[in-house]
Amino acid sequence: EAFGRVLSSARTWRLVAVTVGQALGSSVLTVAVGVPVAWVLSRFRFRGRDALASAAVVPFVLPSVVVGSAFATLLGPRGLVDLRGTWWPILAAHACFNLAVVVRTVGAALDGLPPDMEAAGRLLGAGPVGVARRLLLPAVAPAIAAAATITFLFCLTSFGVIVILGGGRVSTVEVEIWTRATRQFDLPGAGVLAMLQLAAVVATLTVHARISRHAARATAGSPGTRRQRPRAWRDRAVVAAAVLVVAAVSVAPLLALVERSLRVGDRLGLDHWT
After folding, report:
1. Among residues 230, 89, 107, which one has the least CA distance to residue 163?
2. Dist. CA 186–CA 201, nearest whole Å
3. Which of 74, 123, 221, 222 is the most buried (most CB within 10 A)?
4. Residues 6+ apart with CB under 8 A from 165
5. Burial of 198 (0-12, 13-18, 19+ CB in 10 A)
6. Are 196 and 16 in contact (CB under 8 A)?
7. 27, 155 in Cβ contact below 8 A?
8. CA–CA separation, 3 and 53 (whole Å)
9. Comparing 198 with 226, which gets the higher pLDDT?
10. pTM given for the model
């Protein structure tokens, strides 16, 4: 009975479309932010590099509700701008949470490339953009695809971020399972949706396994790149841009959460901690 009732409902397939769509959007945003950061960390040696790499990883090891609460502080009713109940803070929180996946996966692939690849491209007449487009991106494309796939999986099954930032107006299959099971007591309906979710997870992991094999073959046995100090103004600019991106995506929301924990009315104090 539950299969017919749930699978014949237009709401179910709208939720499926919304869930897949937000996961795709979050993955694209995370890759767009993470790949340049991974390239900077892989190519340059500068003061604070390890701290920058750690800052990109910290949100990933936190519970998703903490990341959601951090963005609710920054982009909620008392934040810089109230975007709660829209998809924008959810996409930003997913990018924050999954940035480490892209930085670590793509960074490892970049470290595995021959150290003279970029120099050879420059010698053959390619500029920085040409080297990136014609040499680096094709070489690490399997790693980018693997990182994007696992990011898609995490966003597909996201729960805490969407519950906190959705404001009751944004829902996905994961949230619908929780709603049916705990509020409507429709356990058969929740079970059907959980089986759909399980099928999507298995399919995504299958794709990831195939892509990962290509990524491993693409980087196995290659010498590591030699990191250089940023000397030219262009190199310093890209390093500064990477620092600003990580600060905005990973550090600022957590600092806002810390400030919120210390805010007692119009003053700062340890009352909440006490």
Report:
1. 89
2. 22
3. 74
4. 68, 71, 72, 75, 76, 84, 85, 89, 90, 93
5. exposed
6. yes
7. yes
8. 46
9. 198
10. 0.87
How many whole angstroms separate alpha carbon 39 and alpha carbon 242?
9
Q: Give the residue from 164, 186, 197, 203 showing the smallest Cα distance to 64.
A: 164
Half-sphere exposure of 86 (CA within 13 A, CB side): 10
SS3 content of the chain, % helix, strand, coil (to 5): 75, 0, 25
- pLDDT tens-place string over residues 62-95: 998 899 999 998 888 878 888 888 899 999 999 9
Query: Partners of 140 in the beta sheet?
Result: none
φ and ψ at residue 3, rounded to 5 degrees: -60, -50
Locate tokens 């959007």: which residue? 25
Instruction: Compute and round to an integer the Cα radius of gyration of the chain.
Output: 21
The number of CA neighbours under 13 Å toward the Cβ of 191 is: 8
User: How many residues are there in the chain?
Assistant: 274
CA distance 253 to 89: 11
The residue behind tokens 């991974």 is 38
Please provide residue 245's backbone torsions phi and psi, each rounded to the nearest 5 degrees: -65, -50
Q: Which residues face 263 on adjacent strands?
A: 268
Q: Flag the least confident range among 12-26, 103-117, 151-165, 247-261.
A: 103-117
Amino acid (one-letter) located at 49: R
Pick from 198, 196, 208, 89: nearest CA to 144: 208
**Main-chain phi, psi angles of 228, to 5 degrees:** -120, 155
How far apart CA 161 and CA 88 sit, in angstroms, is: 12
